[in-house]
Amino acid sequence: MAAKRDLARLITGIENGEPAALRTLRAQYALTGHAHVVGVTGAPGSGKSTLIAALTRLARRRGRTVAIISVDPSSPFSGGALLGDRIRMRDLFEDPGVFIRSMANRGAPGGIARATADVVSAIDAAGYELIFVETIGAGQSEVEIARLADTVVVVEAPGMGDDVQAIKAGILEIADILVVNKADREGAERTLSALQAALEISAPLAAGHHGPAAPTSVATATTTAERWQVPVLKTVATEDVGVADLLDAVERHRHFLGDGRARAAQRMEQEVLRRLRDLVWQQVAQHISDARLRALAEACASRQLHPDEAAATLLREVFSPASADSQP
Amino acid sequence: MAQAPEATRPLRILIAKPGLDGHDRGAKVIARALRDAGMEVIYTGLRQTPEMIAAAAVQEDVDAVGLSILSGAHNTLLPRVVALLREYGLGDVPVFAGGIIPEEDIPGLKAAGIAAVFGPGTPLSEIVQFIRDHTPPRHR
Predict the structure, then answer these.
(1) Are A17 and B61 a contacting pair at CB < 8 A?
(2) In CA terms, which of A104, A120, A187, B32 is 20 to 30 Å from B72?
(3) What DSSP string runs through A285-318?
């Protein structure tokens, strides 16, 4: 219990951007990279939490240790959050080989929190073998998970509005495995065939792994002949139907990825750039005074200045503070 | 500037229902009120054992634990949660309770380490304020 407590406290520190936690994270970074990170995304109500709970039970029977990070939205009004995914995982709370953490997204776009990648890192360093990351499930633009996870599982359920919302939302492109959950419901076959049809259309683009059509030569140098065939599986998570096939597919995908150092480097490029953007913004933002921003905003409001010009002015002033006196 | 990423620190609160109660309206009302006060509320649902509650409190690293109970089993279940939290090294995490708890049981519960008991009709703002006043400063 002490190990879990320490990990839990480290995670809180990471979420809050505490310097000590970030130092620990960096110090143990060399220990990471061993966990299999599985992203689970899909519309609210498709059964992501229940499915993850079922997968976790089975993975435990197969001898794996499992961590679950469930991300839910923060209220844009209060900044608070109601995190309720544990309700569907109650039998797992006391399993010594399971660690569950609920996470508020704290306003970050893309279906996970800004700190989720670092939290995954901390859990990885703690030695958990399989890490499920459950996204908010807005059903679209959840592309951040593709950057973070080794394997992305996209969950659909029959009868949820249009035939397949995911096709429109562009979420198919990030799927390594597609699941029609609640497959005992009416319309499951139709959802299944719609997904299969959509996959056939986009198949030439889906090169091996999620992400915008990676150059195959880099991504899968050793398996150029082989492409990952995105399986479309049916599950009824509440009845444990199809769960073994799904976990098999998850494990097969990991095997397919192999060592994956080239691919990891490719993903890291994105990660480094993301952090560079954050860093640049932080550096810039701390040099912008509220008063100066207000003055330029008022000029924009009275249509004397275009917002583009205002932004460019601020940037110029940050990089050459001497010119800050010359008004636009 | 205000938008610069800064170390923010919302309070994390576990709201749980120990025992065999059949409904959780009250717990959900509290959970929403705390969310609206800017807290991150982990809600674990009905029929939790003290062991489940303490395990969740550890993994979620919460600042306080709120227990809602209607079944009458408060005198056994609530002290057990406090004892487990202490055993797991969370002795400084305050535990508060709500629901249906007879007046005469409150002194015993407080002696067992329950920080506060809020009866039906307690203004939500009072509970929010209590949490803000009683969560310990972080020890790291």
Answers:
(1) no
(2) B32
(3) HTT--HHHHHHHHHHHHTTSS-HHHHHHHHHHHH
**H or E element in which residue A282 lies:** helix A261-285
User: Could you tell me which residues come within 8 angstroms of residue A49 by beta carbon, excluding any fewer than 6 positions away?
Assistant: A70, A85, A87, A88, A89, A134
The pLDDT, as a whole number, for residue A214 is 43
Kindly state the average pLDDT of the residues B102-119: 94
Residue A303 belongs to some domain of the structure: yes
Residue A193, token pair as written in the block = 């065939």
Considering the domain architecture, whether residues A115 and A166 belong to the same structural domain is answered as yes
- For residue B93, give Cα distances in angstroms to A4, A78, A217, A295, A297: 16, 23, 54, 46, 45
Distance CA A134, CA A145 (A): 9
Residues 6+ apart with CB under 8 A from B137: none
Tokens of B24: 């959780």
> Which neighbouring-strand residues pair with A213?
none
Look at B61 and A18 and tell me if their CB atoms are within 8 Å. no
Is there a domain that residue A273 lies in?
no
Cα separation of A1 and A147, whole Å?
A: 31
Residue A293: list chain B partners with CB under 8 A.
1
